[in-house]
Design goal:
mainly alpha; three-stranded mixed sheet; 3 strands
Length: 550
């Protein structure tokens, strides 16, 4: 019969018989009866029946030698889930037998064979070793003994031991033992990091950083970070990929400090391709282009000498990062903020702290008076830039101006306009920091902002409306331009709009207005990227084409 059937059939009657025998002081007969029933237990499938007999032994205080001898027969090797269930259930009834069985599993554990350690310690904590957390204390000593066998050759072993220690931290154990757990984890990770070398795998290098974040909730002890960084500094240039494996598990500030020290130690800051990769990783870690710009400025403050054959590539990379930072900061700039504060602030920590580092030279700061953002189409000064950066911007401005003059772009003075404007630098964001993206003039620099026909149409319209003298004389005078646009729309814009929508019902008029506005915005975007012919076609027909004419 099945063990469940035997247990159900003998449960209450058996318990009654055993109780009567014990009360009548016929203990030997009770033991003989239970031993005969226990002999019928022959394997894992009889575990429920075995638990019932063990409960009777424990309830009446009978000698458990028969249970101790039978327990190993119910445990498999290697142990499975049912085996651990048996040991956890029997820890209360036969602690000596369970401990003996655990010891056999402990003896089999070792490097590469720590898979069952969490189950071993879980059963150990259920053994009645005494009060005040003595069971947890014994389990902690076992984990420390296993931790002494850890090596970077088997990173998964480290994960098993540290995760088991973390499980103890959240369990119901005595405060004295709980206070020792963080120190035990720190000691294991410290020894592991000291043993890391360039010959170990990427997984071996990644494991401690990942465990540090989880074990200490983002507040990793300084001694651990310092040891991990010292280990990383032993990596040669050929192991750069391993460096980035560790980098992504560090805090942004710690990661940047590690990259700088590694570049200096290996004299690698002059390698433009490597600096481009470093800038990309630093930008990803901190989430802003300014972090990559700060890295390049740091290299400049250290007096890094770029080889002549890489000088042009370095300038292109530097300019790309500088422009990406300016675009990033200009999008968050309040309207008119760059003018009221004297320009867009391009300061980064390197321009203020660079001279305080050993071997670094303080950088002289200056201002670039003209910079035009492609995103906002505003022209404003850039302040707190270095002399090198100003030279790069001036060089790009000269290239852009040369392309404009080569295309025969008319200046506003040629059309009797009263506005004096210096050409700005058209910017394109380049988050991938590809040096090729900075080569040559920007896309808008090769084509004019407006055609000759557009200019003539604008001047004739201003003369017709009597608004020519109302055009602001300074580009940065934002309030004057706002007033001028409002006056122009009042004088002419409402007239064009009214004529275009005069025959439409009110509900259709609103839909048409929104649709035309979307088409206008799309046309302006295409005009900013398109050729001179596309721009001329966009305004063909003058006022007759309603919104485009306006």
């Amino acid at each position: 019969p099945r063990s469940e059937d035997v247990q159900d059939a003998l449960g209450a009657p058996l318990e009654l018989v055993v109780s009567l025998l014990v009360e009548m002081h016929r203990t030997k007969e009770a033991l003989r009866l239970l031993s005969q029933l226990l002999s019928r237990v022959s394997g894992p499938r009889h575990r429920p029946f075995f638990f019932g007999l063990a409960r009777l032994y424990a309830k009446h205080g009978l000698n458990k030698d028969a249970l101790v001898l039978k327990l190993p027969q119910l445990c498999t090797r290697p142990p499975d889930r049912r085996t651990w269930d048996v040991l956890k259930s029997m820890a209360e009834y036969t602690p000596a037998a369970v401990e003996l069985q655990l010891q056999s599993y402990i003896d089999e554990a070792g490097p590469g064979r720590f898979t069952h350690v969490p189950q071993i310690t879980e059963v150990m904590c259920k053994l009645p070793f005494g009060a005040h957390g003595s069971a947890a204390n014994k389990a902690l000593k076992l984990l420390q003994r296993f931790g002494a066998q850890l090596t970077p050759d088997r990173p998964e072993d480290l994960k098993i031991i540290v995760e088991d220690l973390r499980a103890f931290m959240s369990s119901n154990i005595s405060p004295a033992v709980r206070e020792r757990l963080p120190r035990a984890i720190e000691s294991l990770l410290l020894s592991y990091c000291e043993a890391l070398t360039a010959q170990h795998t990427a997984d071996a290098w990644e494991m401690p950083g990942d465990l540090m974040k989880r074990a200490f909730d983002g507040q990793t002890p300084a001694v651990l970070l310092e040891q991990l960084q010292r280990s990383c500094l032993r990596l040669p240039l050929t192991s750069e990929k391993t460096l980035w494996v560790v980098f992504r598990h560090l805090s942004p500030d710690s990661g940047v400090a590690l990259v700088r020290t590694w570049l200096l130690q290996n004299d690698a800051a002059a390698d433009v391709d490597r600096m481009e990769r470093c800038a990309r990783h630093v930008h990803t870690a901190k989430g802003e282009h300014a972090a990559a710009l700060d890295l390049l400025r740091w290299a400049e403050s250290r007096g890094v000498r770029i080889p002549a054959e890489s000088a042009q590539k370095w300038r292109e990379l530097y300019l790309t990062v500088l422009r990406a930072t300016a675009e990033e900061r200009s999008t968050s700039m309040k309207r008119g903020g760059a003018f009221t504060s004297g320009g867009l602030d391009m300061a980064t920590p390197a321009v203020h702290d660079g001279g305080s580092e050993e071997g670094a030279v303080a950088m002289e700061l200056t201002t670039s008076p003209h910079y035009r953002s492609q995103l906002t189409r505003l022209e404003f000064p850039l302040r707190n830039i270095t002399l090198t950066e100003r030279g790069l911007l001036a060089e790009k401005l000269d290239v852009a101006a040369a392309h404009r003059s080569g295309e025969g772009v008319p200046s506003l003075e040629d059309g009797d306009a009263v506005q004096d404007r210096t050409p700005g630098l058209d910017d394109t964001a380049a988050p991938d920091y590809s040096a090729d993206s900075a080569g040559g003039p920007p896309g808008d620099a090769a084509c004019p902002m407006f055609s000759q026909q557009q200019l003539q149409y604008a001047l004739s319209l201003l003369n017709q409306l009597g608004l020519k003298d109302h055009v602001p004389t300074r580009l940065e005078d934002e309030e004057a331009w706002r007033s001028f646009v409002a006056e122009l729309f009042s004088a002419y814009g409402w007239k064009v709009l009214g004529a275009h929508y005069s025959d439409s019902p009110q509900h259709v008029r609103r839909q048409q207005l929104l649709g035309d506005m979307e088409r206008l915005q799309q046309a302006l975007r295409e005009s900013a990227r398109g050729s001179q012919q596309q721009q001329m076609a966009a305004t063909e027909g003058g006022a007759a084409q309603s919104m485009r004419g306006l």
